[in-house]
Structures are given as C-alpha cells and as structure tokens.
Amino acid sequence: MILPRSFYNRPTLIVARELIGARLVRISNGKKLVGLITETEAYISEKDLACHCKAGRTPRTQVMYGEAGHAYVYFTYGNHWMFNIVTERVDFPAAVLIRAIQPIEGVELMSERRNGRDTFGPGKLTQAMGITKSENGVDLTEPGSSLWIEAGVKVQNSLVTKGPRVGLNKTPEPWLSKPWRFLVKDWKII
DNA sequence: AGCACGATGCTCT
DNA sequence: GAGCATCGTGCTT
Questions:
Q1: What pTM did the predictor assign?
Q2: Å from the A28 CA to the C1 C1'
Q3: Where residue A169 falls among pLDDT bands split at 50, 70, 90?
Q4: All domains of chain A, ordered by start, with CATH?
Q5: Which of A45, A79, A119, A177 is the most exposed, having the fewest neighbouring CB atoms within 10 Å of its CB?
C-alpha cells in the first residue's frame, strides 16, 4: 500500500517515527529498487534553527511550505543529495530527512552505484537509488510515479533509538539536543 | 577503530 | 564570501 497524503499530513515527529520500517521504492533505469527505512530525522518549522526554513521562504525551502507527501531534495557539501519528505499542513514548513536504508530489492544495482560500499547515510542512499535534483518536489503519493513509499515492517518501540540530530555543528540549543533522530538499533532484525 | 581533513558547488547574506 | 542536515581517504593509536 502506498502511504497516502494523510500519513504525512500529521505532526512531523509521528511521521518520522512511523517511517521507520517503511519501504522506500524507486524505479531507476527500469529497475525496481527497494529499501527499508532504518533512520530518519525531523526538521520542524521556522523556529527550529537546524531547519533550512529558519531562513523563511526562499526558492530552496519553498517545497517545505507546500503540501505534505512531496519530496524535498537538496544538495550539500558540494557532493551529496539529501532526500526529505514534506510533512504537516500547507504553510507549515517541516520535513523528515531519510538518513539510511537497508536494501532489500535491486541490491546489485544499488551496490554497483555505491562501488560496493554501504547505503547507511543520507548521501549514500540517494546515490544508490539515483535520487537527485530532478526528484525535488515530486508527489510521493502519486500512483505510477518512479518514487514512493509503501507500508512495510512494523518496528516496535523497544528497537528504536531516539537521539539528537547529526551534523548540526553550530546550531544553538535547545535545537542542537532535541531528540528528533530515530534509528533502528539493529537493522538486521527487520 | 577512531579522528582529521579535503573535496566540491549551491544557497543565502 | 561563508557556511553547509556528508563522504572517503589516509594517518594515528
């Protein structure tokens, strides 16, 4: 089942938690690539100084102000594409960053794209799945597209770790320490 | 197995 | 012009 817009149009922390174990599906070069989501982070509103939307509406952040269930893809560090999913109502900017997947289908192609290296990392999974700027803004709830998310494995709370978000460096408190990162303790279990 | 750093280019001030 | 929601390499322990 493709996750409907109503799934994403909810509080971002709920969405980030419930995306753990969901199936990220990508059609790339005519092949189907599937990975179970094992790590996410929530970025919530202009008040969150770790969120890009702290700068308000800009050409880059505009997608986050739009309808839930669309992709927010951006480029960073000169090398890497980051894949996020817009959450909450229109005009409330927020998104969930997908930080890691466990490949379960199309493993060979993903491994080849990664030169045999792993897919645990936000820049790594986009490279493995061929997600770039052209996916920015696409509707992930639209049937027949090349990128969507399906209901997957239910992961119980005891297997999910919460902690501070990664790589924020100079972000001031309290945002630096907000436990808005979710990850599976041992992905081999799912 | 852990830390330090350079690569690399887009976004916003 | 500075900073950046990272990654891989190469060096140290």
A1: 0.95
A2: 38
A3: confident
A4: 5-184 (3.10.300.10)
A5: A79
